[in-house]
What does this fold into?
Amino acid sequence: MLGLELASMNSRLSLQKERKREHSFSREAQLETCDTAEAEAKPGLEGLRLAIEWRIEQRTWGRIRQLKVEVIDGCVIVHGCSTTYYTKQLALVAVREVAASWPVEFDIQVVPAGTDLGQAESFACATR
It folds into this structure.
């Protein structure tokens, strides 16, 4: 009896792992099918901005909320909110991959999970 329960539990765990793997692959495929040609086709600063946004989305799996990238006066400025410092670090790595020679101002706020985005700005100001 115990052997059947263990076998059943193992098969359920295997099925769960397979579903997670399939979801991971489908999300990866979604990100890779993003229109990167659009970013490369746009000239100059707009193409750079789009390429940086796309790379951040890809690296962080879309976990940066309110993501906004600007290129002003030769400086890349990245705005957004994250729930972890790790995600913020992933975004920084993504920016460096695309715009290694550009100066970067990094304005991604780390706010607690579940915080209303309207409150995120006041939370960030209160913790400074």
